[in-house]
Predict the structure of Alcohol dehydrogenase YqhD (Iron-dependent ADH family).
Amino acid sequence: MNSFEYCCPTEIVFGKDAELKAGEKISACGAKTVLVVYGGGSVKRNGLLDRLCKNLGDSGLKCIILGGVKPNPVVSFVREGIKTALREKVDFIMAVGGGSVIDTAKALAHGLANYELDIWDDIWQKKVEIHKTTPIASVLTLAAAGSETSDSAVLTNEETGQKRGLSTVLNRPKMAFMNPELTYSAPKFQVACGISDILMHTLERYFSKSRDNYMTDFIAEGLMKNVIQFSRDALEKENDYLARSEIMYCGSLSHCDLTGLGRQKDFSVHKLGHELSGKFDVAHGASLTTMWASWARYSYQTDIDRFARLAGALWQVEKNDASSAALEGIARMENYFKTIGMPTCFSELGIGVQNEKDINYLADMCTDKGKKMVGNFKPIDRQDAINMYKMANH
């Protein structure tokens, strides 16, 4: 096991009516004006936004409402939101939604605290290292990205087509209010995307060059088995509290770094998928399942035993030949994604078969025209990226 330092300071309030403790806890932080950020409007239609604003108001907090976050959050929205927050003297931000809303809240928090810097050119492009941010909380309505406990966030620059992540300890939210009942109204496809994202956050840490990391392996394998076990009930039974609570808890654990302690992250599939989202505006989870099997088949010989171990742990594959076991495990995972309604190639993603020019464009965006390598389990250059995109291009 490699050396590591770990701190996940997010306070978790989990269970039925967890969100009703938001006003009390945010007020205790000394906040006065809260920017409440949300997405497409479902939280308005189902009454959650009104309940939260009343809860905050009853605790003496002023609410400023900012809606309209897109599924792939964009930098122009953040820039306008920073202006609003400065004008209203916001000192706390609360995200109501899933990963896209929480990532937007993180960007708003950084931009508000460092208003002299541009959120994309300076902060997101890492030209300037920031040392302060605005505290944020989240009320989770979709178990997926794990952004409620993670140190990462992703934004899309719609002018350049770039979708880029930023990792910093300042991204860790101060608190997260997690009521599994709030996920009941999410569309089935969004739930499936969320389940896929949870699995992928764990897989991207599981495949690493670091060896002899047994406790972390057991945690990662147990989490993935738990997600697979409860995913079908979560998808088939809209109001299954047990299934939704297990999935929600796994989502937070999958991306708070616990499943990767003591080893390097890879996140090659995320990078490959980000370019699909950046160009075609497809759902994040769907972009990941589209690319995973192609990445895995292209990369499995890097560590055949690792893939064979996963096949045994998740799918009880027992074969004397490790290579056969590894390939069988990849096929089982790919088939699982299909059974929950997720795409595993470009045509299933809905973007159709791409021409050579578009494949080259995706590879260029992924590797900065060949200037950068992606990942570390099997470092990917521009030609590798082209090959993987081609494997998914059917």
User: Anything to note?
Assistant: The two ends are 40 Å apart (CA to CA). The chain has 16 helices and eight strands. The mean pLDDT is 96.
